[in-house]
């Protein structure tokens, strides 16, 4: 079916027309770049194929499911701030390559739509009623993103109706909204946390979309991690199913930096910087004592990026333990032997441990609780306290003469919440500003069901499924982990996989937080 025939295949839909819940699964097969709806009513990926293996994984647009929408000239083009800009808008054919390390014969590969202002927009300024919600754990930069969405809407598009949803997803249906103006948000970027509040759990798609409809909201900005983005994709699907002209824009937030595809998430740099303070303190304490050990626990439930980058940045760390790299305590090549050796060599040492590291060791000894938080995330055992205890026990062991193995002093520092509760640093502030403005441009342009984030240094609109399908992890067979090992000189506890057997997933996980295409530079 040609694109022009889409309108006839899609049931007629009213804007904010509650009751137009037409779940007819009109299967519209279009040419390249087309959209189709699956039997379940979900939208299938919009894939455009071009020459030499070029693939665009495009994001949904209102025109995919609402026919005959009027468009308007983008007011940014008349904005005095942009009067000397060589180009105000991005070209609608601009796309961003996912992989930038290529060989001369490589296929061009996957691309995403370049984020930015478009010539035509699908909202008039006074028609827009936007809302912003923050969900999941805290992260430096949340307030900056909120501020810049509000200021972007007001200053770039002349929008006057922006509200905040109080306390995460459940706030949609259980709380009042908070009016947001540039004046209200003027100073919030200097504070940690989120002025809107956040929560885990409470995602009820139907109730949320009912509330969006009842309030007449037509742009929804959703800031949160992997769980939040999954929730956002359900909200988008329901909105599309109801045929509403409501843009759903996701802004990825995660201190753990575990969202795939994107270069890195906002707040990550700030967290790594803040972690230096704890590592420095651990180092000072350890250095001042005979056989001093400083142990620092950092966040990272499934992914050890914070621990890895904080270690690489510090150079005072002797051992970094992350969830992706299993280790063992006893015997030759084990952690205890390494600690003993390092103490004999240097008289002190610093260990950084990610909260998700060594969970299997703790589980072996304790009854697995299987506890979950309100969002269904597995609650971890406290590896920091457990490890402190184990190290102390080991060095208190006595030989046959009753003499202790070694008298050590261990100081345990747990700055986990401190590194995510701080305001974002200067570079994260700039990052958050671009991200927020790109989210606003995307929604104004009629795109929906997308996450905005940098890919190889350029902001792109990425379909939700690419963000939520897997988790980004440290690839321990990658050169970046080897760099860490060579900087700490710690043992690489596990048997390293034969590189010819590295899975495609691991290979793809090899995306940089430093903006380059590969850690294997
Ligand atoms: N699979 C899912 N489907 C729908 N909603 C979800 C899903 N997973 C999580 N959510 C909702 O998203 C919100 C945040 O989820 P979660 O607590 O897992 O944090 P997150 O967004 O992953 O952030 P982080 O883990 O980085 O703190 C919660 O309100 C939760 O109900
Ligand atoms: O905020 P909570 O519920 O204590 O959860 C802490 C978790 O949140 C994260 O900071 C992710 O946001 C993880 O690193 C950590 O395990
Ligand atoms: Mg999460």
Question: What topology does this entry show?
Answer:
Layout: H1 6-9, E1 46-49, E2 54-58, E3 72-73, E4 95-97, E5 109-114, E6 120-121, E7 130-134, H2 142-157, E8 162-165, H3 171-174, E9 177-179, H4 182-185, H5 205-215, E10 219-224, H6 226-242, E11 247-252, H7 268-287, E12 292-298, H8 305-314, E13 319-321, H9 335-346, E14 348-354, H10 359-365, H11 383-396, E15 409-413, H12 426-444, E16 450-455, E17 458-463, H13 464-468, H14 479-488, H15 504-509
Parallel strand pairs: 2-5, 7-8, 7-10, 10-11, 11-16, 12-14, 12-15, 13-14
Antiparallel strand pairs: 1-2, 3-6, 4-5, 5-17, 8-9, 16-17
Helix pairs in contact: 2-12, 5-6, 7-8
The chain binds adenosine-5'-triphosphate, 6-O-phosphono-beta-D-fructofuranose and magnesium ion (MG).
Structure commentary:
- The chain has about 525 residues and is of the alpha/beta class.
- It contains 15 helices and 17 strands.
- It has helices at about 5-10, 140-155, 170-175, 180-185, 205-215, 225-240, 270-285, 305-315, 335-345, 360-365, 385-395, 425-445, 465-470, 480-490, 505-510; strands spanning about 45-50, 55-60, 70-75, 95, 110-115, 120, 130-135, 160-165, 175-180, 220-225, 245-250, 290-300, 320, 350-355, 410-415, 450-455, 460-465.
- The strands form three sheets. Strands 1, 2, 4, 5, 7, 8, 9, 10, 11, 16 and 17 form an eleven-stranded mixed β-sheet that branches. A four-stranded parallel β-sheet has the order 13-14-12-15, sandwiched between helices.
- Strand 7 (about 130-135), helix 2 (about 140-155) and strand 8 (about 160-165) form a beta-alpha-beta unit.
- Helix 2 crosses helix 12 (about 425-445), helix 5 packs across helix 6 (about 225-240) and helix 7 packs across helix 8 (about 305-315).
- The longest helix is centred in the middle third of the chain and has 20 residues, at about 270-285.
- The radius of gyration is 25 Å and the shape is elongated.
- The two termini are about 45 Å apart.
- The structure holds adenosine-5'-triphosphate, 6-O-phosphono-beta-D-fructofuranose and magnesium ion (MG).
- Magnesium ion (MG) binds near residues 225 and 226.
